[in-house]
């Protein structure tokens, strides 16, 4: 307990953040139909890590939305679909997302405010290139869901979590996001007494994210084993970076920690210690962290970037408008 308070290389990760343009016959959910040559719809390339099987709306139709009503209709439809967000969508409640969806911002214009997205009891969802700010709950909540890819978003000022993953969700990749002005950042596993649902699940890859002055939960992990925290940049994290609790197994590998007194530790609050292995991390004006126990082998092959170069890579590539 804490006493205080698929194969990928760097080149492959960069390729995974590329987009395919040239989508034909897209429609707009705000009421009009485009011409036959709409070449601006962005489709996510294949993700890396545990969420590598996620394809989202690939192979389906494409729709562009500019209003909240059109957005809700599109993301809740039963069809395989790419939903392009062009403008600010103000939500009045957490909005359910259906299976087989890619939700992607257009350039830097796609924004979600008011509330966030609820990825619940579904599979095969991509959320990419969106600015989330000012949610009265979570920015993104994932529960009872599999094959989810959360990539290249900018997330701030959510009342609760930036990205919370829980309740037997698994096979998820969280990559190339910038989170800032955020207290409770990324929770993995919501409760100490949920072992019956979560044991053997909650397998998540956190890669190339920028935890920019976030306070805690970067991530805070229960039960998931292994969880891979790879090549992220932690800057000015004020409480702690990664916490492993309740039989979790977390590999913290190749990350760059700067101005972060407590980069990683075992246990948190009333939660018992999990296991944490740290490998090849880089520290600038930061603590050395706490490790212990063993972690299950990462089941995909990969090649980590040298940690000393992660700051430059992540600050150049994380967030919106980078794909």
Describe what you observe in this structure:
The protein has helices spanning 10-16, 68-75, 195-198, 310-317, and strands at residues 19-20, 27-28, 43-44, 61-65, 81-85, 88-90, 95-96, 101-105, 111-113, 117-120, 123-128, 131-133, 140-143, 146-151, 154-156, 163-166, 170-175, 178-180, 186-188, 204-207, 210-212, 220-222, 227-230, 233-235, 242-245, 249-253, 256-258, 264-266, 275-279, 282-284. By secondary structure, it is mainly β. The strands form 4 sheets. Strands 2-4-5-8-11-14-17-20-23-26-29 form an 11-stranded parallel sheet, with helices on one face. A 9-stranded parallel sheet has the order 6-9-12-15-18-21-24-27-30, with helices on one face. The protein has an 8-stranded parallel sheet with strand order 7-10-13-16-19-22-25-28, with no helix packed on it.
Oligomer: single chain
> In what order do the strands lie side by side in the largest sheet?
2-4-5-8-11-14-17-20-23-26-29
**Uncertain regions spanning at least 5 consecutive residues:** 1-44
Largest sheet: 11 strands, parallel
Mean pLDDT: 89
Q: SSE layout and pairings?
A:
Blueprint: H1 10-16, E1 19-20, E2 27-28, E3 43-44, E4 61-65, H2 68-75, E5 81-85, E6 88-90, E7 95-96, E8 101-105, E9 111-113, E10 117-120, E11 123-128, E12 131-133, E13 140-143, E14 146-151, E15 154-156, E16 163-166, E17 170-175, E18 178-180, E19 186-188, H3 195-198, E20 204-207, E21 210-212, E22 220-222, E23 227-230, E24 233-235, E25 242-245, E26 249-253, E27 256-258, E28 264-266, E29 275-279, E30 282-284, H4 310-317
Parallel strand pairs: 2-4, 4-5, 5-8, 6-9, 7-10, 8-11, 9-12, 10-13, 11-14, 12-15, 13-16, 14-17, 15-18, 16-19, 17-20, 18-21, 19-22, 20-23, 21-24, 22-25, 23-26, 24-27, 25-28, 26-29, 27-30
Antiparallel strand pairs: 1-3
